[in-house]
Amino acid sequence: MAGRDQGHRRVFCRPFGPSHHSEVPVFRDPERVLHQGTAVTDSIPRLAAATLEPQQVHAAIRDVGCVLLEGVFTTEEVQRPLDAWCEILRAWLHEHGHPAADSTDPEALHDAIRAVSPDAAQVALGLGRDLPDYIHLISHPKLRALVGAAMGSTNHQLAFDHCLMRVDRPLSDATNFTWHQDYTYNVLSEDAVTFWIPLVPITAEMGPLSVVPGSHGTIRPARMVSDAPRFDPNRLPLVVDAAQQADWEARRVEVYPVSPGSLLLFSCTLLHRSGPNRSNRTRFVANGRYGRFDDAALVRRNWYTARTKYPHFFAQAHPDLVHE
């Protein structure tokens, strides 16, 4: 399903059903201006979940590499993981006799823990993905139906290693990632998709996701950073020159505002990045990846992917695309 193209791996999308050419409404925002002064003219598809057809989702991923689906989840459905996370924090505060233990504000609860134990506060940031309410959300039939439409398959692989409930605190550079493709870090099926579900309203100040529409379909070369920590998010940066970097910046679209319960789906080969949260509110997002078990390349390598045990598996799967 993939061929060679100027040193890159080309990835071809599976057709969806007998008729897979569908027109997709687009989201245009010509007034938005990038930091270097270039107006955004690119578009990303924006669809209402209540009226969309599966073929539209497939066409958007095939043609643009991403799609924003509005109104997929109810307020209650996206609130449950947050409420459950608050219960974890309250239990810790109750155990330590802290007066903030009865708060219902997740940020106030986390701030109270951080003031007492920075270590406990740091650990708490990663506990969301262990919550049954979070797992229920990311395996919800509504999400699986849309993922199936995007990939043209119902033989799904939900790689839990690559799923997390992101808790991005204000004024932190910890989530300031460079341009990358998710495939480099997960090596799932070559047409895998990433899901991004905001649990709170996402604004421009929160360091929203930036994407380069139409940049998908190629597995790009990456460079191995030998001295990077084992799970450093920038341990496999793409090989890119100044001209490419400038082109990506000129074409980028920032995905905001986005309401809780919306769903951004994008190709595992779409160029994207996230910026630091410069607001005074925490960015809560359910984030993860779906691949498909019937991908030919995945089957040929006996289903090996870049799991927690193999964070650098990209180098084994694609040695010709790794630069030292």
Walk me through what this model shows.
The protein has about 325 residues and is an alpha+beta fold. It folds into two domains: about 1-75 and about 140-324, Jelly Rolls; about 80-135, no CATH class. The protein has helices at about 55-65, 75-95, 105-115, 120-125, 130-140, 140-150, 185, 240-250, 295-300, 315, and strands spanning about 1-5, 10, 25, 45-50, 65-70, 155-160, 165-170, 195-200, 210, 220, 220-225, 255, 265, 270-275, 285-290, 320-324. Strands 3, 4, 5, 6, 7, 8, 13 and 15 form an eight-stranded mixed beta sheet that branches. α3 runs antiparallel to α4 (about 120-125). The radius of gyration is 20 Å and the shape is globular. The two termini are about 25 Å apart.
Write the layout of secondary structure elements.
Blueprint: E1 2-5, E2 8-11, E3 26-27, E4 44-48, H1 54-63, E5 66-70, H2 75-95, H3 106-116, H4 118-124, H5 132-138, H6 141-151, E6 156-158, E7 164-168, H7 183-186, E8 193-198, E9 209-211, E10 218-219, E11 222-223, H8 242-251, E12 253-254, E13 263-267, E14 272-274, E15 283-292, H9 296-300, H10 313-317, E16 322-323
Parallel strand pairs: 4-5, 11-16
Antiparallel strand pairs: 1-2, 2-10, 3-4, 5-13, 6-15, 7-15, 8-13, 8-15, 9-12, 9-14
Helix pairs in contact: 1-6, 2-3, 2-5, 3-4
